[in-house]
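2 proteins. here.
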Amino acid sequence: MAQRPCRHRSRRLSEDFKIRAGGAGDHAWVRDLGRRTVSSSVSALRDPSPSTVGDSFDRLVDFAFGQSHVLLVAEDGLERLGFVLFLDRLLDEVTGLPQAFVVYVAVEPHARRRGAGRRLMAAAESEARKRDLAYASFMVTEENDAARELYAQLGYQTERRQLCKRL
C-alpha cells in the first residue's frame, strides 16, 4: 500500500516568513515546542526519563524569562515555526566579557532544514549587535549533527568542551 505524503513535509516555507520579537503570548508555545524538541539536547552518555528532561527544560525557561532576555519567533503568517531565546546580560563565566548567551533554539520538526533556524540565528546576532554584545555563545550536544553543521556554517567555533564520564 502506497504511503500518503505528509502534508507538513512537502509544504515549503514561504520565502517571506518573518522573524518578530516574541512576548508573553508566546511563552506557552515556547514551552511546548521546547519540551517536544529538548530530547535532541540529551547526550548519549546520559539516560534520563523524558519527564525529567521536560522538567529541566521548564526550569531553564523559567530562569531565562526571569532575566533580561530576547525572544525571537519565526512565523510564516499561518503558524509559528521556531524561536531563539537568549540572555543579553549574562557575562562569560571565564572572561567576564558581555555576550549574548543563547539559551535555546527550536524549530518545528516539519519546518526544519528550510532556513528558519539560520534566519533565527541571524536575527539573534543582529539583536545582540544592537545591544553592543561582541560575542554570541551557547552549548550544543555533540550528537546533534544538524545543529552543529548549521552553527559551523554560521561561523561558530568550539570554545570549550564539557566532558562527562558515567561512573
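next one coming up
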Amino acid sequence: MDGGLSETSLKHRICGLVLDTSALLLVAEGVNSVEEALEILRSRCSNVKLILLTEVTQELSKLASGRGRKGIAARLALAELGKLGVEKIESVDCDRVDDCILKYSLDVRNLEVVVLTADRKLAKILRENNVRHIIWWKSRRRFVLW
C-alpha cells in the first residue's frame, strides 16, 4: 500500500531514509532491509541519503553486547552498517529512540524523510503524525511504503 505517497511528489526530491533498530535487526533473518527500502525509494526519489541517529547506534551497540539471537542480530546489523555510506546524526534531547526518530522526522526540512522500521508501534505513531515510512509486512515477507 502506498499510503498516499504520489510518485510525482518525490520523483525529483532528495529523500532521507531514517534507519530504525527493528528493521536493521532483520538482517539475522536474511532480510537486507536497507537494500529493499532503497529499491522502493529509487523510483520515487532522485537521491536517497541513509540516516542513522546516534540513539539507534547506541541501541544496537547495547544489544550487540548481549547474548542470544538479538545480540547476534545486532552484531550483524552493525557490521552491515559499516559497509554502507550512512550519515550519522546527533539527535536532540529525547528519552526513547522512537521519540528521537519521530522528532528528527518532523524537524527536518531539507529532505523528504522516510523512516524504515519493523516496529508496529512506531509505525502507528509515524502514521498519526503524517510521517512517511516503510514498514516490514511480516506475513508477506516484504516492506511496504506508507
